[in-house]
What we know:
This protein is of the alpha+beta class. It has eleven helices and 13 strands. The longest helix is centred in the middle third of the chain and has 56 residues, at 228-283.
Amino acid sequence: MRRLRPRTLRGRLTLGLVVLLTVIFAGVGLATAALLRTFLVDRLDQQLVAAGPHYAESLEHGQAENPLSDTRGQALGTFGARSADGMVTQSGVIARASGNGTSLVKLSAADSRALLALPPDGSAHTVRLSALGAYRLRAVAGDDGDTLVTGLPFEHVEDTVRDLAMTELALFGGAVVVAAVGGGAWVRLALRPLDRVATTAERVSTLSLASGEVALDVRVPDADRHDEVGRVGASLNRMLGHVENALARRQAVERRLRDFAADAGHELRTPLASVRGHAELALRRGADPHHALTRIDAEARRMSRIVDDLLLLARLDAGRPLESVDVDLTLLVLNAVDDAQAADHGDGDAAASDPLHAWRLDLPTDPVVVPGDPHRLAQAVANLVTNARVHTPAGTRVTVGIALRGDSARLTVEDTGPGLAPELAERVFDRFTRGDPTRSRASGSTGLGLAITQAIAEAHGGRVAVASAPGRTVFVLVLPITPRSAAGTAPPASGDGSSGT
Ligand SMILES: Nc1ncnc2c1ncn2[C@@H]1O[C@H](COP(=O)(O)OP(=O)(O)OP(=O)(O)O)[C@@H](O)[C@H]1O
Ligand SMILES: [Mg+2]
């Protein structure tokens, strides 16, 4: 049975159509044949009643061989018989239309038995007579104790019903064949878009998406149709779009990871090379060991800083939970600016009359408190403030502000320096990205500061962004605030770091 089930959807739909039509046609055929038969039998019975027992009565008066029966007004083929005392005494059939048209009928024993068995109550019965075929017979009681049987041929009814059945069979059979061929073609046409969806899905399934560059540019055509197939196609296309995005992102992550490892190696190689160089120098006879050791110490510190930064990034990447206490952001800003000012003075010529940077604060009166890790957040803020000091020339004005926006705090560090080149601004949060690699490496910058700030912001559910143009560069650090922050339950900010212009 299983073998007979078509394997394709098209086959199943066509078969379903054919089976359905066959069932409907069979029902219609049987019902019409039954109705027609009932109608014809009813009419025959009416004719039988209308004819009455006259013909059978008239047989009684004639002789058996040449009955002078009365055939007037009787239909051709009318059968008559008379029985008395359990015997059929006369029987005849009207074989000709004119004159005495009666022919004698030879009845077999079975015929006689069937005739005698008819109840004489005027009801009609179908009986098959051996000489005449099927007849509709009706028996009534005669005047003198005999029984009069009248019959009309039944074969008309059977022939007509058979004709109808044959006609219907031919018509319905033809219709089913046409439906099978036409329906099959139509279903094939209607399912063609689905075929294309299936082809696309098969093509995608053969692509190896595990690694390397993947061009996932296959798409289902006619996904703009407004039917089910269109919806499936559109969904598949959307899904392919998502997969393509995910693959592109995965590739980018893979590339970044590779670059990161290479960059980290490269960054550590430079100080290591100078450590080795200075060590060799120190070992030479006559060299100044003090100078070499000072350089080695400086390079070792630099390496520890890089390693610490890398470890911190790795920890943040791993998504380990951070400490979460109430952190007063205002206080962090005050401390960071304070430190920057001190560093400014340390860098500069103490005798110079004008300050190196002009520092300004733009803070709300109430402390702004965010949930988080105080050390990490301090580091994030310090990185932004330090950048504004280190990467801008003397005389630059730096404004550090905090504003509450909805349920987040926005910390901005704005400077009037030359800003970042657009291509640098795009990837300034990537690891080891520096404005001028050679010069800034010499000045001790690693290009990890903003990457760390971004990782810290994201670990706190926040983000960091930059907008830069010559004369105005703004770094924004957005952090979600605690509901309590506005209530001022945090320890009050000490005002020692505040600064005038
Ligand atoms: N306020 C700014 N104005 C101009 N350029 C900036 C500013 N802030 C950052 N940059 C540029 O972005 C680069 C990346 O900054 P980032 O803090 O990530 O690294 P870095 O400061 O060079 O090194 P590190 O912070 O690790 O010591 C800097 O090298 C600098 O060129
Ligand atoms: Mg920096």
